[in-house]
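Possible regression after last week's pipeline update?

I re-ran a chain I had predicted before the update to compare outputs. Posting the input and the new output here so someone can diff against the archived version. Not blocking, just want to make sure nothing changed silently.
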Amino acid sequence: MLRDTQLIFVRDMKLALRSPTWLLIGIMQPLLYLFLFGPLMVSVVDHTPGFPPGGAWEVLTPALIVQTALFSGSFAGVGLLTEYRVGVVDRFRGTPASRAALLFGKVLAQAVQATAQSVLIVLVTLLVFDLDASLTGLLLSLAIAAVLAITLSSGSYALAMVLKSEAAFPALMNAVLLPLLLLSGVLLPVSEQLAPGWLYNLARINPLTHVVDAERAAFRGDMSATGLLTGCLVLLVMAALALLWGTRTFRKENA
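New output (post-update):
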């Protein structure tokens, strides 16, 4: 299965590298947030209670890394639906390749692409803005983003295989992702000081909120933060469930 996973991973990476515009398009929105929204955050974070520890760039940059992994992973199923329409999936069915390897190779390629985009965001923030982050914290935050991309892309591929509709899939993803994104505190933290009680409690139910908290704690190098451990545990559980769903769906749909 390892060799099959490697073959699918290399294939998907070659396809991505043939059209590097994906890299620029994927980071365009985070860069716009950095340049057009970030400067507004500087005075807000310094003078408003309820924000996480650290300066504006320590609050905004890890949130944008999560946002990048969220969108790149969640919409990975669009590419699979295109392959399904043109018959690539049917050709895979005729090979002896492990059905689980088809999924693992694809999600690993998505994780590498999301990590590459995250590295570019960090480099821009380090070079242009006043960001002070530890190397250990940066590496851990990139690892969290990679696992999040694996989780979401696995779920995205499974959902795409179930729906098999290029029209329904993006509409459903947009309907699900918007409330998850707003409640996660990516742009403005949904803390007890800033949010009404009902909104704060609703945000704590959202698993992505805990991942954002963990990403911010890792980014600022606060390894003792409770949110870091909680967020990592939540993310690992999500990853296990998503991979289990994806593996079962691929084995069923490609049998």
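Follow-up from reviewer: compared with the archived run. The chain has a mean pLDDT of 85. Marking as no regression found.
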